[in-house]
């Protein structure tokens, strides 16, 4: 379920928009200069190798990167592995990496081939939480204050587009704003 929840930046309980309508989500985000679109998701993505996924999406990736600005395109994937005693620590470590507010020097472009993750965009006096699911493409403009929650059971496959090899590195603001907002798990259980 793709979801957009718009909240006041100084009061997460002040929910101004909550919608699962793709068209409304795209329009709300476009009004803020944020690109959002849906590509047909591959049912069996989890069982498909990263190379085969890149091959499957080659035409769309080429179209998105027609200017050649993205020099590094890869796939990030994480799935629950309860048989691995290290999994809880791996999941916690991965989740905490981008859970605090930061920005990047380049656009953060992600296509979710499967699973889900939530981007929180801190735009002026509002925070837009965007839960992306398999099929969603989101582009967070360079310099935009944001954070990302992959939830307590991280499970997603995402195509990442970078201009520079270290484009994923975050410039953290030190602001604890994210602690006052619902987590991905909480957003999904709220009605
Ligand atoms: Fe980021």
List descriptors:
binds fe (ii) ion; EC 1.13.11.53; nickel; 191 residues; 5 helices; 11 strands; 20% helix; acireductone dioxygenase [iron(II)-requiring] activity; alpha+beta; nine-stranded antiparallel β-sheet; Jelly Rolls
Order of helix and strand elements from N to C terminus: EEHEHHEHEEEEEEEH
Largest sheet: 9 strands, antiparallel
Low-confidence parts lasting 5 or more residues at pLDDT below 50? none
Structural class: alpha+beta
Amino-to-carboxy terminus distance: 13 Å
CA-atom Rg in angstroms? 16 Å
Shape: globular
Given the structure, what is the number of helices?
A: 5
Architecture, CATH level 2? Answer: Sandwich
Give average pLDDT, whole number. 96
- Bound heterogens, unique: fe (ii) ion
Top-tier CATH class:
Mainly Beta
For this structure, what is the CATH homologous superfamily? Jelly Rolls
Estimate what percentage of residues fall within beta strands. 35-45%
Helix content: 10-25%
The count of domains is: 1
Detailed description of the structure:
- There is one protein chain.
- The chain is an alpha+beta fold and about 190 residues long.
- The chain has one domain (about 35-115, about 130-190): Jelly Rolls (Sandwich), CATH 2.60.120.
- It is about 20% helix and about 40% strand.
- It is built from five helices and eleven strands; from the N terminus they run E-E-H-E-H-H-E-H-E-E-E-E-E-E-E-H.
- The chain has helices at about 20-30, 50-55, 60-65, 85-95, 185-190, and strands at about 5-10, 10-20, 35-40, 70-80, 100-105, 110-125, 125-135, 135-140, 145-150, 155-160, 170.
- The strands form two sheets. Strands 1, 2, 3, 4, 6, 7, 8, 9 and 10 form a nine-stranded antiparallel beta sheet that branches.
- A hairpin with a 2-residue loop joins strand 1 (about 5-10) and strand 2 (about 10-20).
- The radius of gyration is 16 Å and the shape is globular.
- It starts with a strand and ends with a helix.
- Bound molecules: fe (ii) ion (FE2).
- It comes from Nocardia amikacinitolerans.
């Amino acid at each position: 379920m793709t979801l957009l929840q718009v909240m006041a930046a100084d009061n997460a309980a002040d929910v101004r928009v909550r919608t699962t309508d793709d068209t409304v989500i795209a329009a709300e985000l476009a009004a803020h200069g944020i690109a959002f679109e849906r590509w047909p998701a591959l049912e069996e993505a989890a069982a498909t190798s990263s190379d085969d996924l890149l091959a499957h999406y080659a035409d769309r990736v080429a179209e998105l990167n027609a200017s050649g600005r993205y020099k590094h395109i890869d796939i990030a994937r994480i799935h629950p592995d309860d048989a691995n005693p290290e999994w809880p620590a791996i999941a916690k470590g991965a989740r905490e990496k981008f859970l605090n507010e930061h920005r990047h020097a380049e656009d953060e472009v992600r296509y979710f081939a499967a699973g889900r993750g939530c981007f929180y965009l801190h735009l002026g006096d509002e925070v837009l939480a965007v839960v992306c699911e398999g099929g969603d493409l989101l582009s967070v403009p360079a310099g935009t204050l944001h954070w990302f929650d992959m939830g307590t059971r991280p499970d997603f496959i995402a195509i990442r587009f970078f201009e520079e090899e270290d484009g994923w590195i975050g410039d953290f603001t030190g602001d604890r704003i994210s602690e006052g907002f619902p987590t991905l798990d909480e957003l999904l259980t709220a009605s």
